[in-house]
Amino acid sequence: MNKEAYQKKIASIQSQLNPDTHLLIVSKTRSEDEIKTYYELGHRDFGENRVQELLEKAEHLKNSCPEIRWHMIGHLQTNKVNQLFSVPNLWAIHSVDREELLEKILKAQDKLSGSLNIFLQFNTSKEEEKSGFADYASLKHAAQLIGKKSQIKLHGLMTMGTLRTENFEGEARRCFKELEQLRQKLSKELKLPLENSMGMSQDYKIALEENAHWIRIGTMMFS
After folding, report:
1. pLDDT score recorded for residue 129
2. 198 with 175: CB under 8 angstroms?
3. What is the chain's percent helix, strand, coil content, to nearest 5?
4. What's phi and psi for 208, nearest 5 deg?
5. Kind plus residue range of the DSSP H or E element containing 25
6. Would you say 25 and 47 are in contact if contact means Cβ atoms under 8 Å apart?
7. Distances in whole angstroms, Cα of residue 203 to Cα of each of 76, 105, 173
8. Number of domains in the chain
């Protein structure tokens, strides 16, 4: 695509967003030139799902794209946390899916140059191949482990809609509605202004109807 095509893509998506919704462009497998094109059009938030690929892109683009904000959106192994924390301009992790990982992140926070936002992943679909917290009690306990003076900031909750279903739209709505209810409850109990991260290329319109704060779109932005 040429720059004009990129401009039309991002304008089309942005015209659909709610006032408090952010677009996270999923740039996994995409080239640095493609990312740079969107950056030059004013976009700042990009998501990757592999630590090594994220680190390489961040290092290569840190000078030409100094205001870029990187988001880790893939499953994160505990032994990759230190490497992830060396990523320039790392802004958020959307996939903190278990207490063991959160504890590792908290212990390693002194390796960060600044603060880092995290989303706790909740398994609304209950599909076995998906990771994430499975009940409200464990979710709240994890949230309470994060100290208010910590470099690690609880920014919100994340989920994905059900994949293996004949009722894709209905299940996506159920999952997103549940996450929004959990966000409201946890936000009220912890007195924190939390956000949610939900919706991808195939179901982002449903996520927007259910009050998504972050939608994660990749395929649509590059085709």
Report:
1. 79
2. yes
3. 40, 20, 40
4. -65, -40
5. strand 22-26
6. yes
7. 24, 30, 9
8. 1
| Cα(151)–Cα(182) distance, integer angstroms | 24
With tokens 């212990």, the residue in question is: 107
Average pLDDT taken over every residue of the chain: 95
User: With pLDDT > 70 as the criterion, what percentage of the chain qualifies?
Assistant: 100
pLDDT band for position 159 (cuts 50, 70, 90): very high
> What does the pLDDT average to over 4-30?
96
Beta carbons within 10 angstroms of residue 139's beta carbon: 20
For the chain, give the longest Cα–Cα distance.
Answer: 49
Residue 181 vs residues 75, 84, 177, 212: alpha-carbon distances, Å: 24, 31, 6, 12
Here the tokens at position 103 are 């504890």
Name the residue range of residue 48's domain.
3-222
For residue 156 the two structure tokens come to: 């919100």
What does each C-alpha distance from 114 to 55, 85, 111 come to in angstroms? 17, 10, 9
Q: What is the mean pLDDT of residues 165-170?
A: 85
Over the stretch 116-141, which tens digit does the pLDDT of each residue have? 999 999 999 888 878 999 999 999 99
d(CA 94, CA 189): 21
Q: List pLDDT tens digits, range 77-122.
A: 999 999 999 999 999 999 999 999 999 999 999 999 899 999 999 9
CA 130 – CA 170 distance, rounded (Å):
18
Domain holding 181: CATH number?
A: 3.20.20.10
